[in-house]
Amino acid sequence: MGRITLDKVSKSFGEVNVIPPLDLTIEDGEFVVFVGPSGCGKSTLLRLIAGLEDITSGQIRIDGNDATHMPPAKRGLAMVFQSYALYPHMSVKKNIAFPMKMAGVDPAEQERRIKSAAEALNLTAYLDRRPGQLSGGQRQRVAIGRAIVREPAAFLFDEPLSNLDAALRVGMRLEISELHNRLETTMIYVTHDQVEAMTMADKIVVLQAGVIEQVGSPMELYHKPRNAFVAGFIGSPKMNLIGGAEAAKHNAATIGVRPEHIAVSATEGTWKGTIGVSEHLGSDTFFHVHGTGLADAMTIRAGGEVDLHHGDTVFLTPDADKIHRFDKEGLRIE
Amino acid sequence: MARAVTPARKSINTAAAWTVALIIFFPILWTILTSFKPEPVAVASPPVFLNFDWSFENYETVIQQRGYGQFFWNSMVIAFGSTILGMIIAIPSAWAMAFVHGKRTKDLLMWMLSTKMMPAAGVLVPIYLIAVYFKILDTRFLLTIVLMLMNLPIIIWMLYTYFREIPVDILEAARMDGASLTNEILYVLTPMAVPGIASTLLLNVILAWNESFWTLNLTAFNAAPLTKFIAGFSSPQGLFYAKLSAASVMAFLPIMILGWFSQKQLVRGLTFGAVK
Ligand SMILES: Nc1ncnc2c1ncn2[C@@H]1O[C@H](COP(=O)(O)OP(=O)(O)OP(=O)(O)O)[C@@H](O)[C@H]1O
Ligand SMILES: [Mg+2]
Q1: Domain count of the fold of chain B
Q2: Which position among A70, A278, B2, B35 has the lowest Cβ density within 10 Å, counted as fewest Cβ atoms?
Q3: B186 vs A: CB within 8 A
Q4: pLDDT tens digits, B204-215
Q5: A72 touches chain B (CB under 8 A)
Q6: Number of C-alpha atoms within 13 angstroms, CB side, residue B220?
Q7: Does B176 sit within 8 Å of A88, measured CB to CB?
Q8: CB distance A86–B170 less than 8 Å?
Q9: CATH class (in words) of the domain with range A4-230
Q10: Which fold has domain A238-333?
Q11: For residue A326, is pLDDT > 50?
Q12: Using a 6 Å cutoff on CB, does residue A54 contact ligand 1?
């Protein structure tokens, strides 16, 4: 079980208030991703849940029990750190066994769990090595193995993949998602990479300056961003945000159109501009269009085989149903 | 490519290095030589170098008549006892200062260091009187405690510096893994700090071994360590240079041997840490 409830939780470091009072419920078995720009308090929030930082006010409950003043060891949560934080003086096997040793798990059972974790994570061949003799990806797997064997109420991940190269990151992302499907244990995952957030989460929590901007499924956030910040943050490439007269035509202070919801044509359309940089990815093409008078550069996503290039004049037509409208405060207008 | 060094230049450098090393080592060498001389040769002028009747007589006299064993044992107990006791107190203190520092941690560290600047003679009388009151004068217990207290600031400072190098993440991981504070220090922090702890240990054993102010003033015979043993040869009945030298050699030899062996251990420990 792993239902975690934050009730008016706040955190200050001395005078600096990093997290104003905040409410959040994480259901048992959910994969929740905290996402937001650097310094917005994602790690701090995770560390509050872990018990590595004391909360300034409010209450944290884990499965209904007040955990506010519980030391981390008592909360039954496992954490995977960005730096892996393996014990350098212990073999891989001892690293994985450490939490069980601390919990006094019987040695035969320890062996069994180490074996099954090592098999699941492809670590069987490395059990006698020291962490220093492993690659980054292998180290991260050891860290995950160490977390699994505890059979925790929830897993906490703080940017676990950011030290890995791009290819490995995609692979590990899948492995973690598969792990979640298999274990069905609550996972809280911190990242500033919105692709990781979109692909892995059941529920995304978007944070800005310690404030929750929106909580919802990836598709909810994509289709109905609650405000302009979330609209700009979720989705890749970023949504085009347009103010001024064009927005006023739609009775809004700002309108937003995603790059994939704009049609591009060489002959006719609503807005006219010139192609600046064009990025051909094979499956897709991204055009950065200047001179539309709407925004500095409009990003357009087109198919892979579009015969348009740098310097060409193009016409852009937004999909009328897919225009997001925001008021002066940046809040969504339905 | 390394800087080109001509053979001539290289030999000059080597000669210079050896000269400096010999000058520094000379007093020790002279003490060792003297310890093998008969008493009259030891004070002969001009001095005699190697051309004398080498003998172990001084050592025999010193060991048999002056009870070297007792002094040696006292030195061992006091030096290792005070260091180990100091470690037991210093490891948790240094942990707290390195990993849960508060606003006053820096001040506290500075204050501890400042106690080392105070002349020891300034607190001799109070400590002497306390020892008299508790009837522990001239006991190994007293010396162990006093030397531990004297060296504690240095032990804490050294450990603090080593602990600062250890990533906090790893200790936090231990906490998440269910380790109590004691287990965190025992199974994670201490093994990771082994090279640092070893050099702290060694340095403090040496400091305590060589300490003479407190050992000379607070002991008479029962708890007297080797420092007192050496001092005993500059007695009113006249100086015995050869025997004094033999006593000195026997006082510093154990610690030099320890230093020699642990030096290798330390280098190994340090390079091991570097590979991680
Ligand atoms: N121990 C601390 N003392 C003072 N301020 C802190 C401390 N830890 C974090 N902060 C501040 O709290 C804010 C949030 O930090 P946090 O590490 O939670 O950000 P983050 O969202 O994880 O950022 P990133 O994506 O860069 O990891 C930052 O402004 C940071 O400077
Ligand atoms: Mg962070």
Answers
A1: 2
A2: B2
A3: no
A4: 888 898 888 888
A5: yes
A6: 4
A7: no
A8: yes
A9: alpha beta
A10: OB fold (Dihydrolipoamide Acetyltransferase, E2P) (2.40.50)
A11: yes
A12: no
Residue of A nearest to B276 (CA): A132
Mean pLDDT in residue range A194-204: 93
B193 domain residue, yes or no: yes
Q: Tell me the pLDDT tens digit for each residue of A235-281.
A: 889 999 998 888 899 999 999 999 999 999 989 989 999 999 999 88
Chain B residues inside the 8 Å CB shell of A131:
276
Distance from CA of B244 to the nearest CA of A (A): 47
Tokens of residue A113, six digits: 């769990």
Give the per-residue pLDDT at A129: 93
Mean pLDDT check: name the lowest of A182-191, A319-328, B61-70, B181-190: B61-70
Q: CB pairs below 8 Å between A and B: how many?
A: 63
Which letter does DSSP use for residue A202 in this model?
Answer: S
Domain match, B71 and B52 both: no
Are A236 and A192 in contact by the 8 Å Cβ rule? The answer is no
Q: How far does residue A53's CA lie from ligand 1's centre (Å)?
A: 12
- Which domain covers residue B168, as residue numbers? 67-231
Q: Indicate if the alpha-carbon torsion angle A214, A215, A218, A220 is positive or negative.
A: negative
Summarize pLDDT for A113-155 with one digit per residue, the tens. 999 999 988 899 999 999 989 988 899 999 999 999 989 999 9
Contacts of A66 (CB under 8 A, 6+ apart): A59, A60
Same domain, B98 and B185: yes
Distance of CA B39 to the CA centre of its chain: 30
pTM, 2 dp: 0.80
Domain boundary assignment for chain A? 4-230, 238-333
Run of H or E including B84:
helix B68-99
